[in-house]
Amino acid sequence: MASNLTPAQAKPILGDFDVILDVRTQKEWDAGHLDLPSVRLVESLHQHPEKVAELTELASKKVLIHCGSGKRAAMVGQMLAGKFTNLSIVIEGGYSHLV
Fold first, then answer.
1. Do residues 23 and 42 lie in contact, with contact meaning Cβ atoms separated by under 8 Å?
2. CA distances from residue 12 to 8, 46, 67, 84 in whole angstroms, order as listed
3. Strand stretches in 23-94, DSSP E
4. Predicted local distance difference test score (pLDDT) of residue 46
5. Which residues pair with 22 in a beta bridge?
6. How far apart are the first and last CA of the chain?
7. Please, are residues 10 and 64 in contact by the beta-carbon 8 Å criterion?
8. For position 77, what pLDDT does the model report?
9. Is the N or the C terminus of the chain less surrounded, counting Cβ atoms within 10 Å?
10. What pLDDT does 82 receive?
11. Average pLDDT by consecutive 10-residue portion of the chain (99 residues)?
């Protein structure tokens, strides 16, 4: 089951996640991204559901998903909710509210 977090809730606990999935575009990533070892760019995952299979090793990890606004993260969260056991999604805001 996935839990929804606002950026204000997520920001102080970013270091608690095993993996942070950034589902923005490469261009957005290049303009700035969270500087944590746990951050991984999975570009536009909401448009490429076939990439979900590549993430199976993360299924039991503590995972946070974020994007630029919360919309893409919510879509990806729906894609992963049944496959991941400890998933959190940043809603109602995104990257600019996390830095």
1. yes
2. 7, 26, 17, 22
3. 39-41, 62-66, 86-90
4. 85
5. 41, 66
6. 26
7. yes
8. 92
9. N
10. 86
11. 92 97 96 95 88 90 96 93 92 92
How far is residue 64's CA from residue 14's CA, in Å, rounded to a whole number?
8
Q: Six-digit token pair at 95? A: 């990257």
C-alpha 71 chain-centroid distance: 11
Those residues with Cβ within 8 angstroms of residue 24's Cβ, 6 or more apart along the chain or in another chain: 33, 41, 43, 44, 67, 68, 72, 94, 95
The single-letter DSSP state of residue 91 is: -
Tokens representing residue 48 in the block: 């490429």
Token pair of 70 as six digits? 């919360």
What pLDDT, on the 0 to 100 scale, is given for residue 49?
84
Per-residue tokens: 83: 């496959």
What tokens were used for 75? 């879509």
Q: Which residue type, as a one-letter code, is found at position 53? A: A
Q: Taking the model in full, what pTM does it have?
A: 0.93
